[in-house]
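Retry 2 of 3 after timeout on previous attempt. Resubmitting structure tokens to design endpoint.
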């Protein structure tokens, strides 16, 4: 079924735009534990606080006890991230159809900026609504209210695409259309990847 009258698509970052769906477990924990004796729980707690905007990435590395220059550590860690297959093609096609592509993400502010600049998608995907900037994390209602403000105050014609159902439940509760990326769902429409998402948005061409 093709979604009609879509004006903006709001993509999650990790697991949608970027390949790793659980960057904390798959990327950050191994990166830190290769350099310190911090436990999974300690890393998780400090990361969540940093991604809520309580402190900077420099303070995060310091709190984790990771030695080295913070900017160099940011760059080294973020080099482990990859774009999801088909993401750029999807964004380009949306632009050709006059559809805005935004992002709503739980992330450390500095890391979000560095990643999108690294992949050259800073301007192609906008606005970026990031938990570290707004001090609210998905699935909390407040971050979706910030998204609403950024896209003009209305959820009409707006889809949120995420790989986690609780995030979509929260988005749907305030009127966004919802699509689960890379899974199956009884509560939300689901797609396996960007080709399927394209089929949903603009159909076969």
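Retry 2 succeeded. Sequence:
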């Amino acid at each position: 079924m093709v979604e009609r009258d879509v004006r903006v698509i709001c993509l999650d970052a990790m697991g949608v735009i970027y390949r790793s769906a659980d960057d904390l477990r798959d990327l950050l924990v191994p990166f830190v534990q290769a350099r310190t004796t911090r436990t999974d729980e300690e890393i998780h707690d400090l990361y969540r606080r940093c991604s809520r905007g309580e402190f900077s990435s420099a303070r995060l590395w310091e709190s984790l006890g990771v030695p080295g220059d913070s900017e160099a550590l940011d760059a080294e860690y973020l080099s482990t991230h990859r774009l999801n297959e088909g993401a750029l093609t999807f964004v380009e096609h949306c632009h050709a159809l006059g559809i805005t592509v935004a992002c709503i993400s739980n992330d450390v502010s500095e890391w979000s900026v560095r990643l999108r600049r690294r992949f050259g998608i800073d301007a192609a995907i906008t606005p970026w609504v990031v938990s570290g900037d707004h001090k609210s994390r998905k699935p909390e209602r407040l971050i979706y209210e910030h998204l609403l403000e950024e896209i003009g105050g209305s959820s009409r014609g707006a889809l949120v695409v995420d790989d986690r159902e609780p995030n979509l439940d929260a988005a749907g509760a305030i009127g966004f259309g919802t699509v689960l990326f890379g899974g199956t769902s009884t509560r939300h429409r689901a797609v396996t990847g960007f080709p399927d998402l394209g089929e949903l948005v603009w159909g076969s061409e």
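Attempt log closed. The mean pLDDT is 95.
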